[in-house]
Amino acid sequence: MKKFGFLLLIGLLLASCNQKPKQANETDAQKPMTAQTEAPRDGVFIHITQGYDDPHRVLMPLKMAAMMAMDKDVVVYMDIHAVELLVKDAKDLTYADFESFQTYVKQLVEKGVPVMACPTCLKIAGYTPDDLMEGVQVAQKDKFFNFTEGRIVTLDY
């Protein structure tokens, strides 16, 4: 019985030594910084290469970009055949249950999401930067890395 009482006493002492004392006047500013610091937003880099020949591969990533832009930093980069969709006189692209291509681009630009065209692909397709629809930018390599403070996830279509 003495052994049990001794073990109980040791257990209670250990438990009381491991508790942080409560301070009634501790403010948020005095709490550890890790509790207040938010992690930087992660970024999503969406790469689209397809054009009119594969509307699903164009519209699916744009739909994802619009959804992810609510709580992530997003960049849409379009090259190869996709640049043909980004010019002012381009025919709009539609498919199944998606919004149209131009609707997605407009939504993304309004949300501040950079929609970028490959300058070399634009030139090969016979266009200049002046031919791009409103809000679309010519891609610059620095913007590929500076659009977010967090991690970068790449989705390639």
Short description:
With 157 residues, the protein is α/β, with parallel strands linked by helices.
Give the SSE map.
Layout: H1 2-17, H2 33-36, E1 43-48, H3 55-68, E2 73-78, H4 101-110, E3 115-117, H5 119-124, E4 136-138, H6 141-146, E5 152-156
Parallel strand pairs: 1-2, 1-5, 2-3, 3-4
Query: Total strand count, please?
Result: 5
Helix/strand class: alpha/beta
Shape from CA axes?
Answer: elongated
N to C succession of SSEs: HHEHEHEHEHE
Poorly predicted residue ranges: none
Written overview of the protein:
With 157 residues, this protein is α/β, with parallel strands linked by helices. The protein is 36% helix and 15% strand. It has helices at residues 2-17, 33-36, 55-68, 101-110, 119-124, 141-146; strands at 43-48, 73-78, 115-117, 136-138, 152-156. It has a five-stranded parallel sheet. Helix 4 links the parallel strand 2 (73-78) and strand 3.
